[in-house]
Amino acid sequence: MNVRSPKSTPPSAALRKKSTTSKSTPKPIPKPTPKPPPKPNRCPCSPGDSTMQIVLASGNRGKLAELQSTLAPLGVELIAQGTLGVPEAEEPHHTFLENALAKARHASAHSGLPAIADDAGLCVDAFGGQPGVTTADYATRFGYPKSDANNVRALLEQMQGVEDRRASMVCTLVALRSATDPEPLVATGRVTGLITRTPVGDQGFGFDPVMFLPAFGKTFAELPTDVKNAHSHRGQAARTMLALIRERWLPGLP
Ligand SMILES: O=P(O)(O)OP(=O)(O)OP(=O)(O)OC[C@H]1O[C@@H](n2cnc3c(O)ncnc32)[C@H](O)[C@@H]1O
Ligand SMILES: [Mg+2]
Question: Is 226 assigned a catalytic role?
Answer without folding.
Answer: no
